[in-house]
From TrEMBL:
TM region(s), chain numbering: none
InterPro entries from the UniProt entry: ABATE (IPR010852), ABATE_dom_sf (IPR023286), Znf_CGNR (IPR021005)
One matching Pfam family: ABATE
Name recorded for this polypeptide: Conserved protein containing a Zn-ribbon-like motif, possibly RNA-binding
Signal peptide: none
Zinc finger CGNR domain mapped to chain residues: 150-192
Length: 193
């Protein structure tokens, strides 16, 4: 069962699992940049909150696993931003490509139905399995020319989050209207004479 009450809470709603994962480096490109995957507890918390609800206990990753998870995030960011800049699939550095390909090749959570008809997920290594989903989602997004024009950076200068704009006109400006959009509206109101 998913534990939605566990801290820390991570921002979701970017439109793709891989983009939600990129948000774990909060305020990217700003002076307030914050590492949300500070340790193994944070990585497990992200997997519990953002990945599919995987049955069973999650093995606590060690420090090299946390560092590898961060490196995967940065490889995903590099590939996605390169694809957006190129207007289509872009070939990243070999090390980036290899990191993403290796992570994507890992086993992913497997769905099954319980006797009560509930859809559940299982994996031998839930953290690695959810990171494999992130890597696969990254590769799919970066190789999707139809989606890349709808991938935007939040218009808030204090945010830096990427999001996929699913709105019909494709003109969404904020990663979240509730947070960044609301702040911008309040600032604009305060700035009026």
């Amino acid at each position: 069962m998913r534990d939605d009450t566990a801290a820390p809470r991570f921002r979701q709603g970017s439109g793709r699992l891989c983009l939600d994962y990129l948000r774990t480096l909060r305020y990217r490109g700003t002076p307030a940049v914050t590492e949300e995957l500070a340790d193994s507890t944070a990585l497990v918390a992200w997997v519990r909150q953002c990945g599919p609800a995987v049955d069973g206990p999650l093995q606590v990753p060690d420090v090299p696993d946390v560092l590898a998870a961060r490196a995967l995030r940065e490889a995903a960011y590099e590939l996605i931003t390169a694809a957006v800049a190129a207007g289509g699939p872009a070939l990243p550095a070999t090390a980036v490509r290899n990191r993403l390909n290796r992570a994507a090749a890992a086993d992913v959570p497997v769905p099954y139905l319980t006797a009560q008809g509930e859809l559940r997920w299982r994996a031998d290594d839930p953290v690695r399995a959810v990171l494999a989903l992130v890597a696969r989602d990254t590769l799919e997004l970066a190789a999707s020319p139809a989606l890349l024009p709808r991938l935007h950076a939040c218009a808030s200068p204090d945010c830096g989050a990427l999001f996929l704009d699913h709105s019909r006109p494709g003109t969404r400006r904020w990663c979240s209207m509730d947070i960044c959009g609301n702040r911008a509206k309040k600032s604009a109101l305060r700035a009026r004479p």
